[in-house]
Amino acid sequence: xxxxxxxxxxxxxxxxxxxxxxxxxxxxxxDLASSFHVGISAIGFLVTLFAIVYAITxxxxxxxxxxxxxxxxxxxxxxxxxxSNVLTAVATSYFLLAVSRILNAVVAGIMVSIAITxxxxxxxxxxxxxxxxxxxxxxxxxxxxxxxxxxxxxxQVGWRVxxxxxxxxxxxxxxxxxxxxxxI
Length: 184
Known about the structure:
Its main location: membrane. It is a multi-pass membrane protein. It contains 7 helices and no strands. By secondary structure, it is an all-alpha fold.
């Protein structure tokens, strides 16, 4: 039972960190526009670009996962997710920022799909719906708490620190996933 609780926490946290990384742009749009000397509409376009890439790549990549071990796929995707957030944190141009957001969008959708599949596999039948709803709730929690926290961090010490925080949490989740979810 303890293993299920830890695995559940990991999956819910993955939902949260994916949501925070996706939605934080809205909270720091002015800071990004100022940093990259572009209009707010250019930064807003990154939100649209993210959504388009997410929508196109998620079903395609979901089909490609097939029978691969979920834990290995998720670990690999987390590495790409971490990389995309490092690229965002160190971006020196709007182009590099856009590339980092595209890379983030490519892996975010498939990570949600795998987290939900993971939840269905690890949860006993009576807890499946509960866990799947909580993985999705990670996104909502990110909107309610993650974005304001990221915005506050951006206001206090800079928007790059908010992305470094996402990287740090993601690295920790990668480590936890290695330790507690290898069997799937």
